[in-house]
Amino acid sequence: MQILIVDDEVHLRNSLAAVLSGTYQVQTCESGLVALELLKKTSFDLVITDHQMPGLTGLEFIKSAKEVSPETSFMMMTAFGDVNQAVQAIRLGAEDYFLKPIEIPEFEHRVQRVLDMRKWRARLSVEKDNQKNHTRLLGNSHFVHNAKAFIDKVADAPAPVLLLGPSGTGKEVMAKSIHELSTRADMPFVGINCASLNENLIESELFGHEKGAFTGAVASKPGKFELARGGTLFLDEIGELPLSLQAKLLRVLQEKEFTRLGGVKTIKSEVRVVAATHRDLKAMTQDGRFREDLFFRLNVLSFNLATLAERKEDLPEMIEFFWQKARMNSNSKAQLPPELLASLCAYSFPGNIRELQNILERLAVLGPRQGFIPSSLLPPEITGVMPSNVVAINTVNEESFGLDESLERLERKLIEDAMTKADGNQTQAAAILKISRGTLQYKLKKFAA
Known about the structure:
By secondary structure, this protein is of the alpha/beta class.
């Protein structure tokens, strides 16, 4: 956090700076005019200003400073108590107003309170983005174990993380998991899809813009790098970022600073970047579509996410989780019958986790509110002929099982059939089921208990 102290009394401003410099980055100056010039060049989180100063009063300074740096927080101090003056300061945007002299513990408390409120507002501004994420990594496959181990290792590393894998494999969920396990967890997690906007708009979204920077820019606006200050910035579909912006992103990653679109003020970057793509970035560097230096800068800590077809042993748990979520959202009490579960488990899901979620949401919306969901509601690509290694399970008409029990019965049946087909050979049975031998042994022990 960067703080600017503005006071014409050199002893006081140096004393206050000494109090705060152990925790924050602090600069000082002697007047509002000098402070305005500093605000044009540097981004401050908080400005603490005196009222009675030569050139500009504290009130005049705050009014002008808010136009230059609208996202900065302000506190005003004065030796002369005046209720009207305090009201004016608050109306102009000051978040606190106090009398000199002030006890040091009280001063530190007030500064911390203003900065805490600032952090809270930053989290609130991105709360909607956060709500769409669910950070639980579902399943017990080798992929899930490897993913969790990777997250543990990189959570607090300052270097960028690059997540690779096809669309729908859960790259954003994994990025959020990295954030929530890190020391940045209390700060914002901000995401942006680099493929969703044109070149001019994405530059403004990433780095912000100043008033008048382009047609329609009627006010200054912070970008994602500022909104994510202290937290994590998730750059989804980084492979779609225009070449012209790749150079600017590289500078931010290397120099830890940037300027807004149409601006001249240098702003410090205090974010951890997690990028993701379904593209082959290495191949893109060879044909000139992606900067090689940016690729090397991002590819410090990388992880390849598996497709759903490559982690089929995780399907039962995923189906259970997303079905319960879909039922809750649709106010449904319906169950998934065993033959429908068998069809889902036999399907390859080319759209991965996103496709699974969409299918279950469709079933919850279109299906009956109670009883069993009919298999006829499944998409035609799923209701085709089942693979030979999957034996359909007859629908239970007289007895209604909960989802947990239905999934367990289905899983047990599939394993029994695979073991029979493989004449008891666990390696062959695991290959039939497309799971690891270790996972098969774990499940055999579980069902034998």
